[in-house]
Structure of Late embryogenesis abundant protein LEA-2 subgroup domain-containing protein:
Amino acid sequence: MSDHQRIHPVDLEAQTKPTAPLVPRGSSRSDKHEPLAYPPFRQYPPSQLRPPKRRRGNCCCRCICWSICTIILLIILIAATLAALYFIFDPKLPKYSVDRFQITEFQVDSNNVANATFDVTVTAENPNKGIGIYYEDGSKLSVLYSDYNLAQGTLPVFYQGHKNTTVLTVVMKGGAQIGGQVMNSFQQQQQTGSIPLDFKGDVPVRVKLGGWKLWKVTSRVRCNLIVDSLTVSDQIKIKSSSCKFSLKL
């Protein structure tokens, strides 16, 4: 082997030994004291920045809850007010009755057309201490026999005070064509002295509570009468009378 071909040993551990980092950890400068170059900050356009979504469901739930609470509170206040007024005024329904029934005209022609004129005496009683009643224009009164409207009339406009009883005489006139079978029944009842009649009244009224005049309602009166005759005379006997009262808002 020639002198020019010599084998030199190589230290493998020295070649694979890791070298020290160029920049120590936690340092922003290199060993040469030069500042490090960081990558530029990427700025996104405004269109890519989405704002956080608003929770519309929560807002709707809150509005619904507030609305329900407000309605419940109003109902409680109204109920409390009505209860207080009830205990203060102690309202009672008025009472009505038909006390006198006089016929000044009643004729039936050959065509079974009945023309009648009645003088009806009606008693209205207001039993309340602190409540007045205004009877207003637009009332309708009628006398019927077997659903045939024999006469119509109206109540006068007046005010009925506290603890007051008012007696009114109303003139009622009209006519109706009565069927043949109904006329035969009427003639038989005329002979037996027991004729059923219906008295109906629809009267618009306003209630006065102390100094407050409330809204208008319709007072409905329904009376079932039985009289002994339907002939022109000074006195017609009312054999029975039953009246019912209701309010129509």
